[in-house]
Fold:
Amino acid sequence: MELQTTIYLVVGLSFALYIGIAFWSRAGSTSEFYVAGGGVHPVMNGMATAADWMSAASFISMAGLISNMGYGGGLFLMGWTGGYVLLAMLLAPYLRKFGKFTVPQFIGDRFYSKSASTVAVLCLITASITYIIGQMTGVGVAFARFLGVSSSTGVYVGMGIVFLYAVFGGMKGITYTQVAQYVVLIFAYTIPAIFISLQLTGNPLPQLGLGSDLVGHDVSLLAKLDQVVTELGFGKYTTALPGSELNMFVYTMSLMIGTAGLPHVIMRFFTVPSVKDARSSAGWALVFIAILYTTAPAVGAMAKMNLIRTVAPGVVLKDQNIYAKETSLEYDKRPDWMKRWEKTGLLKFQDKNGDGRIQYYNDKAKSPDLQKKFADAGWKGNELSVNADIIVLANPEIALLPNWVIALVAAGGLAAALSTAAGLLMAISAAVSHDLIKGVFKPDISEKGELMAGKISMAIAIFVSGYLGLNPPGFAAGTVALAFGIAASTLFPAIMMGIFSKKMNKEGAMAGMLSGLAVTLFYVFAHKGIFFIKGTEYLGLIGGPNPFFGITPEAFGAIGALVNFAVAFAVDKMTPEPPEHIQHLVEMVRVPRGAKAVDGAHA
Structure:
């Protein structure tokens, strides 16, 4: 069966499975719509949480980032998995014990203020909308490459699929669909990795293959990779850092607390029957996530090696002069996978010296000796641009794996993007219908009316996210960083103070959230092209690329969180203490396991 037909078949069957599950498990009450009735088994909830979390960024981009960054890419592994440790230890059990549906509802009740709940809704929607732009754009890219349609058509199809199982099924439909999506995406990720690990190292486990010797070479994969990338002018794969050590530390912390503060992840812990189950499902989620996350470094390294072996074969062979004309790839003889990916615009070739061959190297290498060798060889600059997002999707094609494996990867990439999009949409829907409409504007709304409001909110959110996926704003490249920064600097500190500081009052919590949001938006936007205009000159809001101790915008969420904590405690000291029953509520929430769920009204 030809490749395109195989892809249509595998992706079509996966979509049919998702829609079938959605109709089988459609929600009939607000409890089922918001938290799947609160009766999801911890193991199943762990799988759904893993699918909810492992977005297009995890499935498509993470291994590509590690492939490009080398050792420094490990910050994504540490940050994103470390966030689940924080969830399991510090947040999930207490939030589940509180017995509410959503994060804004917890904040509103804990800080005895509808205004606090409204501020939390603002932060939640801002974080979720920015995050979902990347998911819908990822769906469009995957459809464009694998189904032979335009990216716009891909976004429309993705919107339709999510509408069918999210609007009708609510959290109940999303949960069981995400279980199926986890199975699809984990097989799609690990099977190609096993094949490629066997090809390169003879070891079927990618995690072990990463440290094994290359087949036909008396040297390990990582040692060989260090050798070839330095010959091409890149930094050592096993020691490269993204900026300073301080930036790497802050970046990791931002990802950790951003993960722990993302509303669509936290909502998953309201769907289990008890506090014990919430902690258990967080542990299971870590296990299921670890399968992919421990595989990603091997995928990144092996993809880098395969790419270099294809486009710069001379550097892999010790007895070849890599600077000789004959040892580079002739463009007209490039493999089919390169031709297919060139059509997407994510892989580009520019023949700068007119020799008809591909020169792939770091033309900004700092070594004068290397620069001289490049110049003596007649090279005029790097001629191949490879987007990090294609590493996972193109890896099976680069390794010449069977068509069914390539089709499975396509289905997995779409499953990852759609599962996270559904979770984010659910968080937005619950915030609007449950926290704003029922909690603020119309408290006496019937359950049927609230359920309808939730479905309408979901439909509107799908339309808005689809529009932004089709017409991403100018700062789209920073949307994922912005989403984590907002969650880290607004919701995470508010939840932490709500659980562990019985003296924190509503004024402090609101001031902290708003200040964290403001400073993070300012810093990120200042680096993403937001300018004041003075005459005919454009003046950046902040001078230089990294003015604040070398901290990049992607890492700034942790600084925003510190601002949040500082402002909140400062305002708290100048304003009245919370009522006695709220302080008693906080103490009750922290009572060890065995206690029943509590709420602010009856504490």
Summary: The CA atoms of residues 71 and 238 lie 5 Å apart.
